[in-house]
Write a structure and sequence with these properties.
There is one protein chain. The protein is an alpha/beta fold and 310 residues long. It folds into two domains: 20-266, Rossmann fold, CATH 3.40.50.720; 271-310, no CATH class. Helix content is 48%, strand content 13%. It has eleven helices and nine strands. The strands form two sheets. It has a seven-stranded parallel sheet, sandwiched between helices. Strands 5-8 form a two-stranded parallel sheet. Strand 1 (26-29), helix 2 (35-46) and strand 2 form a beta-alpha-beta unit. The model is unreliable at 1-11 (pLDDT under 50).
């Protein structure tokens, strides 16, 4: 192994490294009742951080309050209710004085071929996964801007980068999150604030279990594509390779890194799908470059350069 490779590996964050999280840090986690949100809340509290853990039914967070006392504030929050968002953020800032890291984790999955999708279910999906995330973000940003300090963590998905059959509507919510997050990152960078987009693959959370919704419609023509994948997702529940505890550690490592990424991919399946898409996109760009450039208006003095491929 070359010396520069060894140095690069040594500089990589390791999930078992201690002391990343300051005891003064305040993390606000939506959807903390289970899955990534619960794993994050537990890991952060074990490391000594202060956590605002929110859920639609905060009674499920009472064990954290018993264990960690004043370092955890369990609040009711339905992210589709603007009044509850405002109240939760106000109570968190009054209790702890500020919010240093917002983790937008609340959301759920929905499986259907595009033609099988139900209008009401699709709109409800966007209300939670996208509009809820945007609403909480808008509520937290004023305090972060005043302090010129803070990080917004948006839990997207590998399906927020690669659309897969049977989850087009879910992917659409996550693609929307990715676009919003990219723009937000550019808006906040001059203010000293950060954005992290998290793109998990298949993990042993409730996403494919109790949290999953499906269209009751199955159109036979889509059985080899969307139908097959819908059944495979459900059948694989509880056997996914991804560990939410390790995912929580990876997210914390990225947030507290001196040089955090904009995107953090979690899981080998997500990484393979994303790399495959990048290769396909690059091939399309190369194969159709002349057609792409041919749509520009070219001034006379630019024509020779265009012919030379400059």
């Amino acid at each position: 192994m070359r010396r520069d490779d060894e140095e690069a590996i040594a500089a990589m964050p390791h999930l078992d490294s201690p002391g990343w999280v300051s005891a003064d840090d305040v993390w606000f986690v939506t959807g903390a009742s289970r899955g990534f949100g619960r794993a994050l809340a537990e890991d952060l509290l074990q490391r000594g951080a202060r956590v605002v853990a929110t859920a639609r039914h905060p009674i499920v967070l009472s064990d954290l309050e018993e264990l960690y006392g004043d370092r955890v504030l369990a609040l009711r929050l339905d992210v589709t209710a603007p009044a509850e968002i405002a109240t939760a953020v106000e109570r968190a800032e009054r209790h702890f004085g500020r919010i240093d890291v917002l983790v937008n984790n609340a959301g759920y999955g929905y499986l259907a071929a595009v033609e099988e999708g139900e209008e009401a279910e699709v709109r409800a999906l966007f209300e939670t996964n996208f509009f809820g995330l945007a609403g909480v973000t808008r509520a937290v940003l004023p305090g972060m801007r005043r302090r010129r300090r803070g990080t917004i963590v948006n839990i997207s998905s590998g399906g927020g980068f690669v659309g897969l059959p049977g989850s087009g509507y879910y992917a659409a919510t996550k693609f929307a999150i990715e676009g919003l997050s990219e723009a937000l990152d550019r808006e906040l960078e001059p203010l000293g604030l950060r954005v992290l987009i998290v793109e998990p693959g298949s993990f042993r959370t409730g996403w494919a279990g109790r949290s999953l919704r499906q269209s009751p419609v199955f159109i036979p023509d889509y059985e080899p594509t969307a139908g097959h994948r819908r059944r495979a997702v459900v059948a694989n529940h509880g056997r996914q390779r991804g560990d939410p505890v390790l995912a929580a550690r990876a997210i914390i490592a990225a947030v507290t890194s001196e040089h955090p990424p904009l995107r953090l991919v979690l899981g080998g399946d997500a990484l393979a799908n994303i790399r495959g898409k990048l290769d396909r996109v690059a091939a399309d760009h190369r194969g159709w470059e002349s057609c792409t450039l041919g749509t520009d208006i070219v001034e006379d003095d630019e024509a020779p350069l265009r012919r030379l491929g400059a």
